[in-house]
């Protein structure tokens, strides 16, 4: 009997977890031969006849590496919440930036003040590979191209601004504790933005998010700015717990 129980337990352990319960580890190789590690979450109970939104999730500088795991440290569980999975079935792409990279910029900017942020840098090789990865999913018939979202925190918040500027026809954008040279934002006035920041952030101070909000608002963009009193750099925690974070995100359409 003990052997039978042990065999059953071993069999149960060896059975693969259902895909809908976890992110799949994936590796993308671009046509240029560049490699990008990423995690993929697919819609739960996906039906071939239906189209689903897609979220591109950009982590912060602390989650860089090559383990294809750390990029899910902040925010990854939000999309695994069974209630969210049921209410908001979606593709979620979570690429991991290499340790030596910095998403939107060739290196960590010397200053995060908006008027001192880079202005005319070409797209970085890592971000070009991220865009190539995204394009492979945009070509899938199961993806709803009118509901493509980009969410990023800190370094990823800067990347969110960058992607929205470069490809405004694709995204609705949620930059969290990011910053940007606001002179770039005229190219993104058609993008729907929801910007989050902590007013006590001493790493990426809120000037960039405040200036982005003012600039986009003046340009007639659909933009909302939410600032958390007393919150330092970890404003992604209250942002992800904001009451209508998911419902706002998934209600946006191009």
UniProtKB/TrEMBL annotation:
Residues 127-236 form the Dienelactone hydrolase domain. InterPro entries: AB_hydrolase_fold, Dienelactn_hydro, Plant_Biomass_Hydrol_Est. One of its GO terms (molecular function) is hydrolase activity. Keywords: Signal. Residues 1-21 form the signal peptide. SUPFAM superfamilies: alpha/beta-Hydrolases (SSF53474). Pfam families: DLH (PF01738). This is Phospholipase. It comes from Bacteroides intestinalis.
């Amino acid at each position: 009997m003990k052997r039978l129980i042990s065999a059953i337990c071993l069999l149960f352990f060896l059975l693969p977890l259902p895909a809908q319960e976890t992110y799949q580890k994936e590796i993308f190789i671009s046509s240029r031969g560049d490699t990008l590690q990423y995690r993929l979450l697919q819609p739960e109970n996906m039906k071939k006849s239906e189209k689903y939104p897609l979220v591109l999730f950009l982590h912060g500088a602390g989650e860089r590496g090559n383990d294809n795991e750390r990029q899910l440290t902040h925010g990854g569980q939000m999309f695994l919440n069974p209630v969210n999975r049921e209410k908001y079935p979606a593709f979620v792409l979570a690429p991991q930036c290499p340790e030596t990279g910095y998403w939107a910029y060739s290196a960590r900017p010397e200053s995060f003040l908006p008027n001192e942020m880079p202005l005319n840098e070409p797209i970085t090789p890592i971000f070009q590979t991220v865009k190539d990865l995204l394009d492979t999913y945009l070509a899938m018939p199961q993806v709803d191209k009118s509901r493509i979202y980009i969410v990023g925190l800190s370094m990823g918040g800067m990347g969110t601004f960058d992607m929205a500027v470069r490809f405004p026809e694709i995204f609705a954008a949620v930059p969290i504790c990011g910053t940007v040279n606001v002179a770039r934002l005229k190219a993104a006035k058609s993008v729907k933005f929801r910007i989050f920041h902590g007013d006590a952030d001493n790493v990426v101070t809120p000037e960039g998010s405040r200036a982005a909000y003012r600039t986009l608002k003046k340009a007639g963009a659909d933009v909302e700015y939410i600032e958390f009193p007393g919150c330092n750099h970890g404003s992604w925690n209250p942002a992800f717990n904001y009451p209508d974070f998911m419902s706002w995100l998934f209600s946006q359409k191009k």
